[in-house]
């Protein structure tokens, strides 16, 4: 059966929302098993955008903990609860594993080698968006 993908955004970060999850059936897997092979590209390349790393770090802290934000985002779904509590807990555990892998990479190659600085482009895009809004007002 074909399942139409859907997406949700988090609004806790203001108007700059971002896509986080797609509905692809069993994409969250078993809550009791973390498939470590999916980290192979990160482990091999040891490279991640700085903005992505900072957002992942944010999702590992209160009040933006990934499980809490996902629980809130999915609460209004007509099929709620979409994810069980063990699955939500697994999201936090898996996020920690991703962050740990980035830290291992930084310990080997240094932060400047691992974190690709895309923040200049991000700041420029935010500035341009604010300028466009000001002109419309």
Note the run of SSEs as H and E. Answer: EEHEHHHHEH
Strand order, sheet with most strands: 1-2
The gyration radius over C-alpha positions equals: 17 Å
Classify the helix fraction into a percent range: 40-55%
Number of domains: 1
Q: Give the overall silhouette.
A: flat
Q: What is the mean predicted local confidence, pLDDT? A: 81
Distance between the termini: 47 Å
Structural class estimated from helices and strands:
mainly alpha
The number of helical runs is 6
Q: Uncertain runs with pLDDT below 50, 5 residues or more?
A: 1-7
Could you tell me the strand content as a percent range?
5-15%
The biggest beta sheet reads: 2 strands, antiparallel
List keywords for this structure.
single chain, 137 residues, mainly alpha, two-stranded antiparallel sheet, 6 helices, flat
Notes on the structure:
By secondary structure, this protein is mainly alpha-helical. It has one domain (35-135). The chain is 52% helix and 8% strand. The chain has 6 helices and 4 strands, in the order ββαβααααβα. The protein has a two-stranded antiparallel ribbon. Strands 3-4 form a two-stranded parallel ribbon. Helix 3 packs antiparallel against helix 4 (85-109). The chain starts with 6 loop residues before the first strand and ends with a helix. The model is unreliable at 1-7 (pLDDT under 50). ATP binds at residue 23. GO terms for molecular function: ATP binding; metal ion binding; phosphotransferase activity, alcohol group as acceptor. It comes from Terrapene triunguis (Three-toed box turtle). One of its GO terms (biological process) is enamel mineralization. It is found in: Golgi apparatus.
